[in-house]
Amino acid sequence: MTPRQKQVLDYIGAFWAEKGWAPSFDEIKDHMGVKSKSSVASILMRLEKRGYITRTKNLARSIKVVPQEDSKEVPWS
User: Do residues 44 and 12 touch, judged by C-beta distance below 8 A?
Assistant: First the structure.
């Protein structure tokens, strides 16, 4: 996992822990300091492909972090 992917994954987990729902693409974009949602989409696509998150197509705020068996502790819990 790249540092940028880790940063996004940690943000999603912390957001869920604080608010009880997933952040929007715009919220992730603003947090990351990037200019386009396509950058966010690319990072999320890679995280999903690697099994770190799941998303429901065409449903807003549907990002969910998938617990990893090799991870003993999640920083946002």
Answer: no
